[in-house]
Amino acid sequence: MATVDLTADTLAPTIQGDGIVLLDFWADWCGPCKAFAPNYEAVSEANPDIVFGKIDTEAEQALAAEFQITSIPTLMIFRDGILVFAQPGALPKPQLEQLVQGARDLDMEDVKRQIAEQEAAPQA
């Protein structure tokens, strides 16, 4: 199994490191979550250098609240500790593969520069 179950204890060290981390917020009772799971698993197996985490929103309600999850499944991507994507909804496998490639192709120096510019801009 290429996905890992993440909890409040394991999430922070997982997303704060270097590399790409995908998070799937899901619940056992959620039909779209169950439909999305095989795609997520297949893409995780094809990308062993990426962490594909699963967060059960029923078991980890505090994490779901912290990340303001209001709809599941919700997919988030962190790269080098920076949230670079967040969107609710199940994706078909080809779209998920494109999303993973997009995360790989990101120019993180440019992302960090943009964040620094936003943080330095005067607040209205």
From TrEMBL:
Gene Ontology annotations for the cellular component aspect, listed alphabetically: cytosol
Transmembrane segments: none
InterPro entries xref list: Thioredoxin, Thioredoxin-like_sf, Thioredoxin_CS, Thioredoxin_domain
The keyword Cytoplasm is annotated on this UniProt entry: no
Location of the Thioredoxin domain: 1-105
Keyword set, alphabetical order: Disulfide bond, Electron transport, Redox-active center, Transport
Record-level Gene Ontology MF annotations: protein-disulfide reductase activity
Superkingdom, taxonomy of origin: Bacteria
Family recorded in the similarity comment: Belongs to the thioredoxin family.
Name used for this protein in its record: Thioredoxin
Naturally occurring in which organism (per UniProt): Leucobacter edaphi
Gene this protein is translated from: trxA
